[in-house]
C-alpha cells in the first residue's frame, strides 16, 4: 500500500530532522530552533502510529494481497489473533519496535518537565537517530506493506504456538523493555555529549531505566508463563538463545538500576554507569538481532533473508560503535570526585552486585555465542545447553542472594561495628536452621542444594522482617519505611520468593509418563487421576481431541488437556490442563494417541512452581514502587 | 587509553556475529550423506498406476527435490529447475511432501513441471526416512543410489555450480580415471 509506505517514509525524514535539528541548534548556538524538537517527535509518532493501525486494519480485513498478511494470518483465525498477527512475523515486529520507540520518545517529552529543553534536546536527538536507523530498515529490507507476488485465496495462518493469550502481550512487553533501555542509552550519550553527569542527571535517568526494567521483567515473566502453559513439558525456562537474549539486557538493566543509585547518592561509578547504560542497550540490540536473524537455532527460530541480518549488524555497529567512540573521547571530561569507599558499606555491596552481575552477563553471553564462536573458528558444531548455564549461574546466584540479605544490615557510608557482625551470624544461623527444620518436616530426603537455596531465601525474608521490627521499635511509622525503603523491600522479597519457587519446583517435582485407556487410573504424589473419556474437539481453525480426567475419586474436580491439530500449518500442539495452587500445580498433557482408545499422557506434580511468577510480579511491583516514590519526592522539590 | 576497550570488545563480538551470518545454521550435516537412499515404494503423483521404487535412482545422477504446493518458497526455485531440465543437465525427480493430490497437480500446471517422475508422499513417510527437515530441500544422488549432497532451503544457481556440479565432475573424473587405469 503506497499510502502506508509514504507514512513510514515521512516518519523516516522526521526522525532525521529530530536527530539533526537539536544537535545543529546546540552546535551553532541557535536555541530558537529547539522549539521544533517536540512537534517533530509528536508528528513522527503520529505517522508511525497510523502505519501500525493501517497494518492492523488490513489484518482485520483479511486482505491477502499483502504478502505479510498472507504469510501470518488466515481468514479462519479469530479476530484478536489477527490483530496480534501484526507482530507475528519479522516485518511487523520491527514496525512494533519503531512504534514503541516513538511511544517512549513521546513519553520522555511529555513527562520530563523538570528538564530544560536544551538538555532534553540531546536525549531526543539520540532517540531520533535510533528511530531513523530502524525506519530505514523497515523501508528497505522489511517492508510490511509489500504486495504478494501471486494472489492467494487464503493466508498461511499464524504459527499455532503463537496462538495463545500469553503471546498476545509477550512481544509488546518484551519490546517495551528492550526499547525502553534506548532512553537510558540516550540519557547516557547525551550526558557524554554535554559533559555533565551528576546526581541530578542520574535522578532523571533512573525512573526511565526502572520503567524499562519493569516492562522487561514483565515480558520475561509472561514469556516463561507462556512456555510453561503451551510447550507441554512443564518447563518454564529453557536457556534457549532467544530467552538468553532477553535475560542479558535484564541482568545489565538490573546492574544499571543499582549503580545509578550509587551515582545519585555519592556521585561514584560515573564512567561505569555510562558504559553500563550503553551495554544494556547494546545487549537489547543484540537480542533483537539474535531473534530476528536466525543466527542461532532455537525453538523460536525465524527463517529470514540474510541481508536483514547484515543490515541489523550494521545498525548495531553504527549505534553502539558511535556511542562507544563518544565514550572513548569524552569520558575524561566528566568530573570525578575522589571518595574513599569503606569496605563494609552499602556502596561497597552495590559495587559487589555490579561485579557479580557483570560476570553473570559475561558467562551467559559466552554460553549463548559459544556455538557460533566455535563454528567460526572452525572447530565444528556444538550446542551449549541448560547444564552449562545451571552450573555457571548457581554460584553467582548464591553470592547475589547472600549479599542481598547483607544489604539490609549495613548502612550506606560508615563502617560497621562489631555489633552488626554478631547480628549477621545470628540471622544467618537462624535462617539455615529454619530451612533445615522445614525440609525435615515436609520431605523425606535432605538435599544440601535445597538446604542452601532455601536457607538463603529465608535469610532475605528474615532480614526484611528484622528491619521492619527494628523500625517499629524506633517508633518509625510503617508509611515512612515504605517511602524510603519500600521499593527495595518489595523487589528483594520478590527475589526470595522466586528463589524458593525455583529451588523447590526443580528438586521436588514429580512426573509420570503413562499409556492410558478409558477408565484407567494413575496416581502421583498422593493424587489419583482417572481417564473418563476422550472427546473430539472442533475449534475455529483447528481440530483435535480433549481428555476428561477426574482428580481424586468422586470429586468434582476435572482436568481437560487438549491435543490440537492445525491443518493449515500442519502442526500438532498439546494444550496441557493445569490445576493451579499456591503450594503445588497439577499439570497434565495429552501427548499422542497410541491406538484405538489408548493415549499417552504426561502427569506432573510441581510444588511451589507458581512462586516463580509471583516472585517476578513482586519484583515488578518493587520497580513500580521505586518509580512512584521517586515521583513523589521530585514533586516535593 | 583504557576507554577504548569497550569499542574493541564490540568489534570482536560483531566479527563473530558477522562470520556467523555467513555460516548458515541450517547447514546441518545430514546423517544420510554418503548413505544409500532407503528402500521405498510409493505412488507416482501423475501416473496413478505406477509404483516407484528405489531402483529409479540407479544408472544416472539424480536431483531429488522435496516440494509442496503449500510451500511458498518452493515456487522461487522452480524457474531454475525448469532451466536445468530444459538443457538436460541432470535428471530431476520430485518428492511431493504432505500434500493434497489435486492441489499438487494444479500447482504443477501453474508453475511448470521440471520433474521426470514425482514421488507422491502424502503422509511424509519417505520424507521421514530421508530426514527431511522442511520444504524445499534437495538431494543429489549418484548413479549408485547414494546421497552425496543435501541442500536445506532454496536451491539456487550458486549452490548448484559451487557444490553439486563440482561434486558430479569430481566423481566422474575419478570414475573415468579408474576405467582408464
Largest interface: A-B, 37 and 24 residues
Oligomeric state of this protein = heterodimer
Please count the helical segments of chain B. Answer: 5
* Series of H and E elements of chain A: HHHHHHHHHHHHHHHHEEEEEEEEEEH
Total count of strands of chain A: 10
Shape call of chain A: flat
Distance between the termini of chain A: 51 Å
Question: Ranges of chain A with pLDDT <50 over ≥5 residues?
Answer: 297-303
What's the CATH architecture name of chain B? Answer: 3-Layer(aba) Sandwich
The biggest beta sheet of chain A, please?
A: 6 strands, antiparallel
In short, what is this structure?
The complex is a heterodimer of chains A (637) and B (181). With 637 residues, chain A is of the alpha+beta class.
Describe this structure in words.
The complex is a heterodimer of chains A (637) and B (181). By secondary structure, chain A is an alpha+beta fold. Chain A is 64% helix and 11% strand. Among the domains of chain A are: 158 residues, no CATH class; 99 residues, no CATH class. In chain A, strand 8 and strand 9 form a beta hairpin. In chain A, helix 1 runs antiparallel to helix 2, helix 15 packs antiparallel against helix 16 and helix 16 runs antiparallel to helix 17. The longest helix of chain A is centred in the middle third of the chain and has 32 residues. Chain A is flat and about 85 Å long. Chain B is α/β, with parallel strands linked by helices. Chain B has one domain: Glutaredoxin. In chain B, strands 2-1-5-4-3-6-7 form a seven-stranded mixed β-sheet. Chain B is globular. Classes of the chains: A alpha+beta (637), B alpha/beta (181).
Can you give keywords for this protein?
heterodimer, A: 637 residues, flat, B: 181 residues, alpha/beta, Glutaredoxin, seven-stranded mixed sheet
Secondary-structure map:
The complex is a heterodimer of chains A (637) and B (181).
Chain A: H1 2-27, H2 37-60, H3 67-72, H4 79-84, H5 90-111, H6 117-140, H7 165-194, H8 199-230, H9 241-266, H10 270-293, H11 306-330, H12 346-376, H13 386-406, H14 418-442, H15 448-473, H16 478-508, E1 510-517, E2 521-524, E3 527-538, E4 543-551, E5 558-559, E6 562-566, E7 571-575, E8 577-579, E9 584-595, E10 598-607, H17 610-636
Antiparallel strand pairs in A: 1-10, 2-3, 3-4, 4-5, 4-6, 6-7, 8-9, 9-10
Chain B: H1 5-22, E1 41-44, E2 51-53, E3 62-67, H2 78-86, E4 91-97, H3 101-111, E5 117-121, H4 125-130, E6 137-141, E7 147-152, H5 157-180
Parallel strand pairs in B: 3-4, 4-5
Antiparallel strand pairs in B: 1-2, 1-5, 3-6, 6-7
Amino acid at each position: 500500500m503506497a499510502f502506508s509506505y509514504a507514512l513510514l517514509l515521512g516518519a523516516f525524514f522526521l526522525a532525521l530532522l529530530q536527530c539533526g535539528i537539536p544537535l545543529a541548534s546546540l552546535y551553532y548556538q541557535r536555541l530558537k530552533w529547539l522549539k521544533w524538537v517536540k512537534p517533530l517527535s509528536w508528528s513522527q509518532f503520529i505517522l508511525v502510529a497510523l502505519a501500525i493501525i493501517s497494518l492492523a486494519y488490513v489484518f482485520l480485513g483479511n486482505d491477502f494481497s499483502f504478502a505479510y498478511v498472507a504469510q501470518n494470518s488466515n481468514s479462519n483465525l479469530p479476530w484478536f489473533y489477527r490483530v496480534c498477527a501484526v507482530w507475528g512475523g519479522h516485518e511487523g515486529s520491527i514496525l512494533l519496535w519503531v512504534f514503541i520507540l516513538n511511544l517512549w520518545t513521546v513519553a520522555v517529552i511529555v513527562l520530563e518537565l523538570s528538564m530544560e529543553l536544551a538538555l532534553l534536546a540531546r536525549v531526543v536527538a539520540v532517540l531520533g537517530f535510533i528511530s531513523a536507523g530502524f525506519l530505514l530498515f523497515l523501508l528497505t529490507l522489511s517492508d510490511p506493506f509489500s504486495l504478494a507476488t501471486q494472489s492467494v485465496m487464503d493466508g498461511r495462518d499464524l504459527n499455532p504456538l503463537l496462538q495463545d493469550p500469553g503471546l498476545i502481550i509477550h512481544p509488546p512487553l518484551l519490546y517495551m523493555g528492550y526499547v525502553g533501555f534506548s532512553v537510558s542509552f540516550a540519557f547516557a550519550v547525551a550526558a557524554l555529549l554535554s559533559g555533565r553527569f551528576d546526581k541530578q542527571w542520574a535522578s532523571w535517568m533512573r525512573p526511565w531505566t526502572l520503567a524499562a526494567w519493569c516492562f522487561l521483567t514483565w515480558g520475561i515473566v509472561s514469556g516463561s508463563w507462556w512456555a510453561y502453559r503451551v510447550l507441554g513439558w512443564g518447563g518454564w525456562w529453557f536457556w534457549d538463545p532467544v530467552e538468553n537474549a532477553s535475560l542479558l539486557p535484564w541482568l545489565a538493566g538490573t546492574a544499571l538500576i543499582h549503580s545509578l543509585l550509587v551515582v545519585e547518592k555519592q556521585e561514584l561509578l560515573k564512567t561505569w554507569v555510562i558504559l553500563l547504560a550503553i551495554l544494556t542497550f547494546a545487549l537489547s540490540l543484540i537480542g533483537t538481532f539474535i531473534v530476528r536473524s536466525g543466527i542461532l537455532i532455537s525453538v523460536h527460530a525465524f527463517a529470514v533473508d540474510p541481508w536483514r541480518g547484515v543490515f541489523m549488524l550494521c545498525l548495531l555497529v553504527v549505534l553502539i560503535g558511535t556511542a562507544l567512540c563518544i565514550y572513548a573521547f569524552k569520558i575524561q571530561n566528566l568530573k570525578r570526585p575522589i571518595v574513599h569507599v569503606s569496605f563494609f558499606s552499602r556502596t561497597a555491596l552495590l559495587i559487589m552486585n555490579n561485579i557479580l552481575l557483570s560476570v553473570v552477563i559475561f558467562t551467559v553471553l559466552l554460553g549463548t555465542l559459544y556455538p557460533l564462536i566455535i563454528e567460526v573458528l572452525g572447530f565444528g558444531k556444538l550446542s551449549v545447553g541448560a547444564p552449562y548455564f545451571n552450573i555457571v549461574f548457581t554460584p553467582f546466584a548464591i553470592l547475589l542472594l547472600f549479599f542481598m540479605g547483607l544489604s539490609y544490615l549495613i548502612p550506606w557510608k560508615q563502617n560497621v561495628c562489631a555489633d552488626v557482625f554478631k547480628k549477621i551470624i545470628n540471622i544467618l544461623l537462624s535462617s539455615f536452621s529454619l530451612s533445615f527444620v522445614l525440609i525435615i518436616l515436609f520431605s523425606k530426603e535432605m538435599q544440601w542444594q535445597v538446604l542452601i537455596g532455601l536457607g538463603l531465601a529465608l535469610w532475605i525474608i528474615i532480614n526484611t522482617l528484622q528491619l521492619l521490627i527494628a523500625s517499629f521499635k524506633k517508633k518509625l511509622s510503617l508509611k515512612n519505611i515504605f517511602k524510603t525503603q519500600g521499593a527495595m523491600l518489595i523487589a528483594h522479597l520478590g527475589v526470595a520468593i522466586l528463589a524458593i519457587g525455583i529451588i523447590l519446583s526443580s528438586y521436588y517435582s514429580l512426573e509420570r509418563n503413562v499409556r492410558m485407556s478409558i477408565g484407567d487410573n494413575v496416581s502421583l504424589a498422593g493424587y489419583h487421576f482417572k481417564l473418563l473419556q476422550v472427546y473430539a474437539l472442533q475449534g475455529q481453525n483447528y481440530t483435535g481431541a480433549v481428555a476428561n480426567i477426574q482428580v481424586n475419586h468422586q470429586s468434582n474436580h476435572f482436568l481437560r488437556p487438549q491435543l490440537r491439530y492445525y491443518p493449515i500449518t500442519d502442526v500438532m500442539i498439546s494444550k496441557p490442563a493445569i490445576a493451579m495452587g499456591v503450594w503445588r500445580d497439577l499439570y497434565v498433557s495429552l501427548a499422542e494417541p497410541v491406538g484405538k482408545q489408548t493415549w499417552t499422557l504426561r502427569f506432573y506434580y510441581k510444588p511451589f512452581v507458581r512462586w516463580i511468577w509471583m516472585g517476578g510480579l513482586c519484583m515488578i511491583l518493587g520497580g513500580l514502587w521505586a518509580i512512584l516514590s521517586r515521583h513523589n519526592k521530585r514533586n516535593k522539590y | 587509553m583504557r576507554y577504548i576497550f569497550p569499542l574493541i570488545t564490540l568489534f570482536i563480538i560483531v566479527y563473530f556475529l558477522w562470520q556467523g551470518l555467513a555460516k548458515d545454521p541450517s547447514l546441518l550435516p545430514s546423517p544420510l550423506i554418503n548413505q544409500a537412499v532407503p528402500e521405498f515404494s510409493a505412488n507416482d503423483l501423475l501416473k496413478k498406476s505406477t509404483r516407484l521404487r528405489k531402483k529409479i535412482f540407479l544408472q544416472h545422477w539424480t536431483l531429488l527435490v522435496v516440494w509442496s504446493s503449500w510451500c511458498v518458497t518452493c515456487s522461487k526455485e522452480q524457474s531454475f529447475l525448469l532451466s536445468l531440465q530444459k538443457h538436460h543437465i541432470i535428471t530431476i525427480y520430485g518428492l511431493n511432501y504432505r500434500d493434497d493430490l489435486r492441489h499438487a497437480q494444479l500447482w504443477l500446471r501453474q508453475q511448470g513441471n521440471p520433474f521426470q517422475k514425482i514421488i507422491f508422499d502424502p503422509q511424509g513417510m519417505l520424507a521421514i526416512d530421508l530426514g527431511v527437515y522442511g520444504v524445499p530441500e534437495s538431494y543429489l544422488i549418484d548413479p549408485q543410489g547414494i546421497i552425496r549432497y543435501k541442500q536445506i532451503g532454496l536451491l539456487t544457481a550458486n549452490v548448484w555450480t559451487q557444490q553439486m556440479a563440482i561434486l558430479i565432475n569430481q566423481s566422474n573424473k575419478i570414475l573415468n580415471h579408474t576405467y582408464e587405469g
